[in-house]
Automatic annotation (TrEMBL):
Entry-linked InterPro entries: MetalloPept_cat_dom_sf, Pept_M10_metallopeptidase, Peptidase_Metallo
SMART domains associated with the record: ZnMc
Keywords: Hydrolase, Metal-binding, Protease, Signal, Zinc
Protease listed as a keyword: yes
Domain (Peptidase metallopeptidase) ranges: 92-247
Protein name as annotated: Peptidase metallopeptidase domain-containing protein
DNA damage is among the record's keywords: no
Membrane-spanning parts: none
Signal sequence region: 1-30
Organism: Nocardioides bigeumensis
Length: 270
């Protein structure tokens, strides 16, 4: 993440509402669909009929073979109208699978020296923001701090110091290999970034680790475009923790918003 130097959901298909509410959707109901709250995947799954063989049935008579396929169906119904955004690789969400989002162990290098405690605390506070929003879990393993590098296979990722002045911190996406799974932090810059608190800066980086892209790559930002390799989860959020303020963002403190929390819950469950 760079500092200044260079640093509600839209309309839902009537079919999804009908399945979610367990009723037949009339024309009048469909016309007010946009005013209704989009269900989470868990709510949608709970309301979807599942026969004795474990197969889900949608649209009255269409089989969906398992939970993974049902999640794909759910995303296809709500994803095209929803725009927090998740990175994609080859058109597939770049997110943790097989409960990997609850096994995110990490260490904090003792090479941070006098800044070590500050980074440990900022990481814990940043992680707590995502943990309170969605079914994710970051686990700090201090026993690995003395050997905290990408070569340490006892943790999923390492938090290490850097002296570069090009950014405050940088992270990685779920699809990255183990050799690239680290968070590099300029600890001095982390603690002297004005209204951007250390915990919010690292929460932003942990957002990338969960697969979330910069919100400002979306066309609504009007600047700082990166690429189109992402899928929308929530309505565009100019105040998002994943939106750089200097890219037409509206948050001065890089804090997490209700829309950020909603997007995380949509991807990983509440």
């Amino acid at each position: 993440m760079k500092r200044m130097r260079t640093l509600g959901i839209a309309a839902v298909s009537a079919a999804l509402l009908a399945l979610t509410l367990g009723s037949t959707t009339t024309t009048a109901e469909a016309s007010t669909a946009k005013d209704r709250k989009v269900p989470t995947f868990k709510e949608f799954e709970k309301s979807t009929f599942q026969d004795k063989t474990g197969v889900y049935v949608v649209n009255g008579d269409e089989p969906v073979l398992d939970k993974k396929a049902l999640k794909a169906y759910y995303r296809s119904m709500v994803g095209f109208e929803q725009e927090l955004i998740v990175n994609t690789v080859g058109g597939v969400d770049d997110a943790w699978t097989n409960n990997g989002q609850n096994l995110l162990t990490y260490c904090v290098s003792t090479k941070f020296s006098r800044d070590y405690a500050a980074v440990v605390n900022a990481m814990a506070a940043g992680a707590a923001q995502w943990e309170a929003a969605a079914n994710v879990d970051f686990t700090y393993v201090p026993a690995q701090d003395a050997n905290c590098t990408t070569r340490n296979n006892s943790v999923v990722f390492s938090v290490e110091p850097t002296r570069t002045q090009q950014y405050i911190a940088r992270a990685f996406f779920p699809s990255y290999p183990k050799s690239a799974r680290n968070v590099l932090v300029n600890a001095r810059s982390l603690q002297t970034s004005g209204s951007w608190t250390p915990s919010n800066i690292l929460a932003h980086e942990l957002g990338h680790i969960l697969g979330f892209r910069h919100e400002h790559t979306r066309p609504e930002a009007g600047t700082c475009f990166e690429d189109n390799n992402w899928r929308a989860l929530t309505p565009y959020d100019r105040a998002s923790i994943m939106h750089y303020p200097q890219c037409n963002g509206s948050s001065s403190d890089l804090s997490m918003t209700a829309t950020d929390r909603q997007g995380a819950a949509l991807l990983y469950g509440p």
